[in-house]
């Protein structure tokens, strides 16, 4: 039916009228609230202008104002960023992850979009920005895309925008030939370098204690994040007739003023898991446990002289020395490649789902947590695959010899989504 007064939009208000009541002024308007109903809102003050201002304050505070009461298309990107940062602090993420998100926003994303309103940030503008980031590196573009996706997802949940402009951008593909898994030759070269590092007769100072050498062996056999590996405690290890099992219950993070501390939960809730350890890595853990004099079950297996957790920064620095000794310093290898190597071996030897479960990825954990009765047993299949492929003596190198990079990228994309961390 045509004609009649058009319906007031949700969050909109009509004409403001002001009347005098005694010594005060009362401003009045009708607003259509979030439930669709029209309601009268008033504001009183000593002057007419103050009454109008008071009324507008009360209108702004209503949950249905504008688009959810927080943001709308005319809001600046700065406002969105500030609100998202407040929300970030309340999320159950590790301190390191939050810091990485804040840094990516501050250094790259915010300077690009801070002078735009939300309505002005189109898919084309986001596409152009991501292309410029991709020209620098795939990793940089991927991190920026992740931050923008989260920011605009936040805006979408608050009804500030009709669609997420990131969703229509071109997919980011890892450059062909960019390796993220180690070859057997690289693994052996690093093993050899780790065993030779600072062992010559001319080396001055204390001899290395072999902890970083053992850490990379555990990383190779468990595909843990470096923080998860450093957070392993004596009480997290179960060693029985069928083999060794470890519980991943925390991570080591760097905190200003405190240094390296053990956080009592890992990167995500899905990362809490129990996994079987292949024999070559289990032997390293057993040797470390045998050398720990304290009976404190809460002590981390890898620790400094004071018995505190090792710093990931110091471990990475020593690992870079291994790479230099192995003539691999220019290959771009980081400790994260050990995680990717484990994922690649399990995905090729079993399935991507098996790799996701072993690495603590959220996709299968959500299904198990909400729809399937928990299975307390530990699948030793992935550990067997890792043992056959990565053991020191007579390894079966066929899985890492397969040139199947495109399939790996598609099957193991969860590594990029879950593991945004410093190299």
Descriptive account of the structure:
It is elongated, with a radius of gyration of 28 Å. The chain folds into three domains: 1-66, 2-Layer Sandwich (Double Stranded RNA Binding Domain); 77-157, Orthogonal Bundle (DNA polymerase, domain 1), CATH 1.10.150; 184-418, hpI Integrase, Chain A (Orthogonal Bundle). It has helices at residues 48-60, 77-90, 95-113, 123-136, 138-157, 184-196, 211-222, 226-230, 279-290, 312-325, 336-349, 352-359, 362-371, 381-390, 398-401, 405-411, 414-418; strands at 17-21, 24-32, 38-45, 237-240, 243-248, 251-255, 259-263, 273-277. It has 423 residues and is mostly helical. The chain is 46% helix and 11% strand. It has a three-stranded antiparallel β-sheet. A three-stranded antiparallel β-sheet has the order 4-5-8.
How are the secondary structure elements laid out?
Blueprint: E1 17-21, E2 24-32, E3 38-45, H1 48-60, H2 77-90, H3 95-113, H4 123-136, H5 138-157, H6 184-196, H7 211-222, H8 226-230, E4 237-240, E5 243-248, E6 251-255, E7 259-263, E8 273-277, H9 279-290, H10 312-325, H11 336-349, H12 352-359, H13 362-371, H14 381-390, H15 398-401, H16 405-411, H17 414-418
Antiparallel strand pairs: 1-2, 2-3, 4-5, 5-8, 6-7
Helix pairs in contact: 2-3, 3-5, 4-5, 6-10, 7-9, 7-11, 11-12, 11-14
């Amino acid at each position: 039916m045509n004609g009649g007064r058009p319906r007031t939009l949700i969050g909109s208000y009509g004409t403001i009228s002001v009347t005098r009541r005694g010594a005060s002024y009362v401003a009045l308007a009708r607003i259509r609230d979030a439930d669709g109903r029209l309601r009268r809102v008033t504001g009183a003050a000593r002057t007419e202008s103050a009454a109008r201002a008071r009324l507008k304050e009360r209108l702004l505070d209503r949950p249905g104002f504008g688009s959810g009461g927080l943001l709308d298309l005319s809001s600046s990107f700065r406002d969105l960023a500030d609100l998202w940062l407040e929300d970030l602090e309340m999320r159950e993420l590790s301190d390191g992850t939050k810091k990485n998100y804040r840094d990516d926003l501050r250094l790259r994303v915010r300077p690009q979009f801070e002078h735009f309103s939300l309505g002005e940030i189109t898919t084309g503008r986001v596409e152009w920005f991501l292309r410029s980031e991709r020209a620098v590196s795939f990793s940089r573009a991927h991190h920026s895309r992740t931050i923008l996706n989260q920011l605009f997802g936040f805006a979408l949940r608050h009804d500030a925008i009709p669609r997420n402009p990131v969703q229509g951008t071109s997919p980011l593909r890892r450059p062909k030939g960019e390796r993220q898994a180690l070859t057997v030759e690289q693994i052996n070269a690093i093993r050899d370098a780790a065993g030779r590092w600072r062992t010559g007769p001319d080396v001055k100072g204390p001899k290395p204690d072999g902890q970083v050498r053992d850490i990379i062996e555990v990383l190779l056999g468990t595909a843990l994040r470096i923080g998860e590996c450093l957070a392993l405690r004596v009480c997290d290890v179960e060693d029985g007739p069928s083999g060794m099992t470890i519980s991943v219950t925390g991570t080591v993070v760097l905190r200003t003023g405190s240094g390296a501390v053990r956080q009592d939960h890992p990167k995500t809730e899905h990362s809490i898991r129990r996994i079987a350890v292949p024999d070559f890595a289990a032997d390293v853990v057993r040797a470390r446990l045998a050398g720990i004099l304290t009976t404190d079950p809460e002590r981390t297996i890898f620790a400094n002289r004071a018995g505190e957790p090792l710093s990931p920064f110091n471990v990475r620095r020593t690992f870079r020395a291994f790479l230099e000794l192995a003539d691999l310093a220019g290959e771009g290898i980081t400790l994260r490649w050990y995680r990717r190597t484990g994922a690649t071996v399990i995905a090729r030897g079993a399935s991507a789902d098996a790799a996701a479960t072993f690495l603590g990825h959220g996709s299968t954990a959500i299904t198990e947590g909400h729809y399937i009765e928990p299975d307390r047993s530990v699948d030793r299949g992935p550990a067997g695959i890792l043992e056959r492929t990565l053991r020191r003596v007579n390894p079966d190198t066929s899985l890492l010899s397969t040139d199947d990079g495109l399939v790996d990228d598609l099957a193991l994309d969860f590594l990029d989504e879950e593991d945004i961390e410093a190299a």
